[in-house]
Amino acid sequence: MGQHAVYYSDGFVLSKDSFDTTRKAAWIAESLVKDPIPGVQLRPPKPATLDDARRVHSEGYLAALKKGKPIEIANSAKIDWDPGLLPMALSTCGGMLAAGRTALKDGVSGCLASGFHHAKRDRGDGFCTLNGLAIAAHSLAEGNRNHILVVDLDAHCGGGTHSLIKNHPRLWQVDVSVMPYDDYTPSERCVKETVTDARHYLKTVWRCLQQAETEWPLFSLCLYNAGMDVHQDCKTGGLAGMDEFIITLREEMVFQWCNERAIPIAYAMAGGYTGGKTTRKQLVNLHRMTLECSTSKELF
User: Fold this and answer.
1) How many domains are there within the chain?
2) Residue 216 belongs to domain with CATH number
3) What is the pTM of this model?
4) Residue 290's Cα: distance from chain center in Å?
5) Structural domain boundaries enclosing 215
6) Would you state the pLDDT for residue 300?
7) CB 272 within 8 A of CB 227
8) Dist. CA 49–CA 264, nearest whole Å
9) Is 300 a member of any domain?
């Protein structure tokens, strides 16, 4: 495969609240500078605009993120508010939008951001401020009448994304989690499972992908939320028995599934946290698995 774009800018880490979600994009980018992955080319995206964010988020919530009040809404993502929070969120959403647009042209693209899938219309949640998955899905579906599949394989349910895309007739969701945080009742265009035994994880992901294909085989694009917090050593979501081998097979499965169906894919980093047995280096290496698998198959 030739070079494909992976989007990152220093805007992804503007928040003063130092936490994995607000810092690890920079860690991954630094690792790519020191130890490049053939086929991956870092590019800076333009930030999303407030009009982009208004596709899925309310004026009241965006105003709270801009002004810092009411503080309970401005802090609702559990990231302490400061003036850099909204610009950071718009930057990461811009990365997801750029990845989606580039994937539609080139077949594959990525974004080093995380912190999307719990954010809802009127508030953030679970370290997610603005929902870049939903913003990208709406923007790319409405502009070109694309049919878009969001595949969410974070440890936690993607209830925020579901709440923001469930009523759109050209948006579909596959959501396989390992714990019920941000749980919801799926709509008719959503395939959702929670796995409690690692031995069943890959079969469940495959079955959900196949079910989505059976229901709607005309996807123009896959937006992939590649969570590493499913790993057994992750203190926030990890499932016993979920090791690097299983996660590598999962990544290969998703990219191969898209490849065989000629579905362009744009991916984000999603969950993954240091602490417990997981060091910063280990976390970065887990996320690099997605980048490495994204280069292993020729799309189109």
Assistant:
1) 1
2) 3.40.800.20
3) 0.97
4) 12
5) 4-294
6) 45
7) yes
8) 24
9) no
